[in-house]
Write a structure and sequence with these properties.
Blueprint: E1 2-10, H1 14-38, H2 43-59, E2 66-76, E3 81-91, E4 94-104, E5 108-118, E6 121-124, E7 141-145, H3 164-171, E8 184-188, E9 192-199, E10 207-214, E11 220-228, E12 233-245, E13 248-260, E14 263-271, E15 290-293, H4 303-308, E16 314-317, H5 325-336, H6 345-351, H7 353-375
Parallel strand pairs: 7-15
Antiparallel strand pairs: 1-2, 1-14, 2-3, 3-4, 4-5, 5-6, 5-7, 8-9, 9-10, 10-11, 11-12, 12-13, 13-14, 15-16
Helix pairs in contact: 1-2, 1-7
């Protein structure tokens, strides 16, 4: 079990952050107004609903700074891996939580939202409702394809902060499973080896991974760095203390930093307990939970794919087992032939948030560049 302290700080000034939020609110209001008009909402209601939506959207933006503490359980069963932990969820009421179980099975990665606290109310997957406040809807079970060789890839819309690099450092999974690209030896001295691989496909790609292995710790991975080719995103992982458990060196504390143009995230991981795992992982999804299944897109699906194509996930209700890929194809064909009406303007508005957020961020950076040019 690991204890996690998670903090996000802005790299922009307070005035720049205020400018970002104001621009986001204006753009969100304009987008909402057009969407409401297209839905035939009465003219006298459009302005009020657009304004309320824009304010709610800005107050729940994931760009906000925050501080968050939680615990993670990690059960390594050899052929399967189970993660349990919570992540911050953003709502107009502030930073709240969603608790997840993530199972790395032989052929799939399955993320199950077990509990969530949103808009001042608490829910769990056994007594879930399909209609939450602000039209946000029930968090869905998410399913991705896993490489037949057990390779670890980054996954779009992955609900927890556990990257493939952290899976290796926190659970003892072999680093040779990372992306399964060709490793090259970059450095060797009396203390360590430094290996690197370039990942050209999949989420976050293209990027370079460098990992350090300590000779004094029997070759255990001690640090990792992920850098995108455009240098606009960087992750740094460093083991700061060790513990000897039954003859094996395991990390006792890990420092984790993620840097973007807009913000910096810092995570401090501390090992609370290390011991045998139960034979039964206890991973159970209640029947009827809504599922978004991305397996037909392969293990290298990206967030850009999800944003540019809205039909990547196959939706269905959980019936106790995963459908086969043949069954997924039939489910997709069936849903394509059905006309599903979406009622409720608020619900429709919240469904356009992911692409809207990308537009807003892009607009902000364009505005910054133009302002710098004018000053020059």
């Amino acid at each position: 079990m690991w204890y996690l302290q998670h903090q996000r700080v802005l790299r922009s000034s307070p005035q720049q952050y205020t400018d970002i939020l104001q621009q986001m609110e204006r753009t969100a209001s304009n987008v909402a107004r057009k969407e409401l008009q297209a839905q035939g909402v009465p003219k006298e209601q459009v302005e009020e609903q657009a304004r309320d939506f824009a304010r709610a959207f800005v107050s729940s933006t994931p760009l906000r700074p925050f501080s968050f503490q939680t615990e993670y359980e990690i059960h390594n069963h050899g052929d399967t891996l189970l993660l349990r932990g919570s992540e911050p969820a953003f709502s107009p009421q502030g930073v709240e939580s969603v608790w997840w179980e993530v199972l790395y099975d032989k052929n799939a990665v399955i993320a199950h939202p077990t509990r969530w606290s949103l808009s001042g109310r608490s829910y769990d997957s056994h007594t879930f409702t399909r209609s939450l406040a602000a039209g946000a809807g029930t968090p869905r079970v998410r399913v991705w394809k896993r490489n037949i060789n057990g390779a670890l890839y980054r996954l779009p819309r992955f609900p927890v902060c556990i990257t493939p690099e952290l899976v290796v450092l926190l659970s003892g999974v072999s680093p040779m499973l990372l992306y399964q690209q060709e490793w090259s030896l970059q450095q060797e001295d009396a203390e360590k080896w430094v290996l690197a691989q370039r990942v050209g496909e999949g989420e976050l790609a293209p990027f370079t991974l460098r990992m350090t292995f300590l000779k004094s710790k029997n070759g255990a991975p001690a640090a990792a760095e992920v850098v995108r080719d455009d240098n606009r995103y960087r992750e740094v992982y460093r083991v700061t203390s060790w513990r000897l458990e039954r003859g094996v060196w395991v990390p006792e504390a890990i420092h984790d930093v993620r840097l973007t143009d807009l913000y910096e995230e810092r995570r401090e991981w501390r090992l609370k307990h290390c011991g045998p795992v139960p034979s039964d992982n206890g991973f159970v999804i209640p029947k009827g939970m809504p599922v978004a299944d991305y397996r037909l897109q392969g293990e290298r699906i990206t967030l850009d794919d999800v944003h540019t194509r809205g039909d990547l996930a196959v939706g269905y209700e959980w019936k106790g087992t995963l459908p086969t890929e043949d069954q997924l194809h039939r489910l997709r064909a069936k849903s394509a032939n059905e006309s599903v009406s979406q009622s409720g303007s608020t619900s429709t508005l919240w469904r356009i948030l992911p692409p809207l957020l990308l537009i807003l961020i892009g607009a902000y950076w364009y505005w910054r560049v133009r302002r710098a040019e004018r000053r020059a």
